[in-house]
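name: query_chain
kind: protein
chains: 1
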Amino acid sequence: MRTAEDWFELYGESHKNALNKAIHWVCIPLIVLSTLGLAQAIPVPGATPWLHAGTAAVALALVFYARLSATIFSGMAAVAGVCLGINGAMENSGLPIGAISAAIFLVAWVAQFVGHKIEGKKPSFFQDLQFLLVGPAWLLQFVYKRVGVPVSRRAPATG
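structure:
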């Protein structure tokens, strides 16, 4: 099983260009927000304001993050909570969350592909779809490094 550092190193191989990285810093959060908004907009019978397709998507993603590290799991849970809250506020205000999310999603992905054209490398998820979940955690690990939070839990040595 790959460690968080393994995933981040592999992901970083196609994200070295400064402009591509800057595009990712803007677009990955927008893609997370809009993906959850699209999921949240799916009509589900019996759904509540906090129990819907968006929270189901978050739960599945958090399983992946929990396998990487406790700190990545915690941070991504917080990010997801903020995104769900923003989307819920949009929805409660009567804004068309599905249409807004679709527009954000489309624009952000076009920008990501422009960034990869500049980089000269294909997006990582062409190699492995799990990189779609690695991207947001990759950004989070830079924040963690800046504030001194460890990214991975290491298993105690046995022997």
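note: Residues 13 and 137 are 15 Å apart (CA to CA).
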